[in-house]
Every structure is written in structure tokens, then in C-alpha cells.
Specification:
Length: 374
Amino acid sequence: MNHAAIIGWGKGMPPAVLSNADIATFIDTDEEWIVSRTGMKERRITHVSVAEMAEVAGARALACAGIAADQIELVILGCSLPDEICPNMASAVSRRLGTTNAAAMDVNTACTGFSYALSTATALIRSGVMKTALVIGAEMVSRCMDWDNRNVAVLFGDGCAAVVLQATENEEGVLAERLGCYADARDILDVRGVGQRYANTGIPNGYTSWNFDGQEIFKRAVHGMVQASTEAMAKLGKTIADIDLVIPHQANLRIIDAVGKRLGVDPDKVFVNIHRYGNMSAATIAVALVEAIEEGRVKPGALLLLPGFGGGLTWAAQVVRIGQRTTPLGSTGIDFPPCAKTGLELVNDLRARKARYHGAAKVFLEEAAALLSG
Ligand code: UT7
């Protein structure tokens, strides 16, 4: 039987940092609240597009795998706030990377975008449709963030990472998964202002209103991640004792702790990087997976569990066997262009742009909200 081994990995993290203290300069919040309620200390703000972040991460993953761009048969990109919707983002990334023999597909399942993309690519390889795929999780939340809403502005950051999958007869890669969605609860994680429903309302693109029921999302997230993990492990006849490292979605340190406790996993076996990046939506698990490998936390042959959840409310967990090689075969000199601004300056530019539209957009958003609830 075919499997889809992870043979390359790379990340593309934009350099500009936005600290908790930076955020406290423009909304009523403070370091103590953010760290104690979320575990987040800083996040990244990108000065380049989603496609450019994905190009850096993708090129690094290809170099790590030691394969040429034209060997890739699929570029699949998990992203919920793309640069463009049509044509898709994956084709933009494919053109940049020169993956001339690849199909190109976007996956929008919000924060589980990388998880769903990983399962989709794995299924295509396991069924024999193709042999090699580049799977990317990318997100630029900053351009669409409701920066003056403290309920959400502290939670998110930008980032990107990618892995290369290749067909193998070894029992590697995603061995089992469970994907699901609490569609009945999709309104509790609601971002207004992006998409066709707003196209003729006059709302400027990027002017959004984020409406989250944080506590309800918290409960559903823990439930979904535990359910997905338990069912995915059961499909393989495995228990949490068989898992070497849990690499969860990083939306809140308290969610991660609650999931870990319910699964009965030793905290030392849970990878956490939320303090560095916050929640990067579809990029989160991808970046965490890549960093866990780069930091030596993933040993050759390790069995990983990747639980996630996101808007929709989608949820997922994969059980992944890592191969014997956990070091890169090669590297590339590709990097981001220099960024002349700090994270705070980039965010203040975005806030100033939004303020210019505020009066008009507020009316349109209220009208759109009435339309949607009708
Ligand atoms: O991946 C999908 C997106 N992720 C999520 O939506 C995350 C899920 N939810 C959570 O992580 C948590 O619910 C939050 C971090 C969003 C909130 O934590 P909480 O412990 O559930 O806080 P809370 O909603 O109960 O709010 C407690 C207080 C409130 O004040 P009052 O009403 O008690 O006076 C909030 O207004 O904290 C206030 N608050 C803040 N204070 C300072 C809310 N946001 C902030 C803030 N700074 N940024």
C-alpha cells in the first residue's frame, strides 16, 4: 500500500514582530491579561503577500527534500484570507516556485486549512493519483484584522510553512485521521466583510468586523480536538501512550492544556510555540510541525498527533509517522525582502487605512448584518 511520507519541510516567517506591549498602545489591554488568558507574547506581521510567504516556505521545503520544483505534482494551500480568490492562491505560488507539472488547489477550512490540505494530498498520493505534493499552510490575518476590537486583535499573527509529501511503501506520513465540522456553530466564529455577500454593499475590502463567542469556541475547540484525536488514534489501534509528540493548533495555551489533560498526555510531550506567534490560523500547525522538527523535538520514526480546530467550526486530527531522516538534504538562499517598518508601524498603517473608511463602512456592515440575519 502507498503511503505519503513527509520528506521536506520549511517555514517562511515574516520578520516584523508585534508584542503585547505594542498592542496595548492602541487598545485597552495589557501584558498580564494577554499572557495569562492566552499564553501569547508576540506575533509576526507580514510586509509581503501570502504568495510571497508561501514561496519562501515552499522553496525551503523543496530544498530540504532535495527535489526539483518540476517533480511536484500538486501544490495545495490551506489559507482562509488569500491575496485573491479567483484565480486561486496555489496557482500564484506554483508560478513563483516553477512547479510546472503541478495541479494547484486552495483549501479554505480556516485554522484547520493545513490539516485538511495534508489529508487531501495524502489521500491523492495513497490512491495512486500522484506521487509528490507540496502542502502549504499560509495566513495573512493582519490585513483583515479588526485591530480595534480587543476580543480578537490580541489573538492572531501572520506566518507560513510547508511540507513535501512523496509516495513510499514505508508506513510513514499520515497514517490515520478524523476530520469533522460543527456546522451548527459556524456563527460563533464570524468574520464579516470578506467575500461575495459583501461585494455590492460598498464595504472596502479588508474592512471587517470580527464577532467571536470566545468561551463557546473554547469549549467546542477542546471537544472537537479531543474527539478527532481519540478517533484518529483508535483507527490505528493506538493510544496516547504510543504518541511521541502532540503538535496542536495554537489558539490559546489554556485550550492546549485542556486538550492535553483530557487526552492524558504528559505536558513535556506537547509542542508549544504560541508565545512566539499567536494563532496563525491555517499556518499554525504547519509552522509548529516544522519548528518541532527543526528544534530536534521530532526523533527519527516518531509518531505525532496533530489536533486542530477552526472557523466553520472545522476540527481535525492526524496521526503521522515521521521517517528516519529528520535533517534537511539541502538549503536555499531565498528570504524575505528587508522590512523597513516595525510590526507596530505596519499595524498602525492598517488601522489608519481602516479609519479613513470608518463612517461609510460601519453603515454598510450594519446593513450587511441585517441582511445576513434576515
Ligand atoms: O482559532 C479560532 C479563534 N480562537 C478563539 O476564538 C479563541 C477561543 N477563545 C479564547 O481563547 C478565550 O475565550 C479568549 C482568550 C478569547 C478570552 O478568554 P476568556 O477567559 O474566555 O475571557 P472572557 O471572554 O471571559 O473575558 C474576560 C474579561 C471580559 O471583561 P469583563 O466582561 O469580565 O469585564 C472581557 O471584556 O476580559 C475582557 N477582555 C480583555 N481584557 C483585556 C477581553 N479581551 C481582552 C483583552 N484585554 N484583549
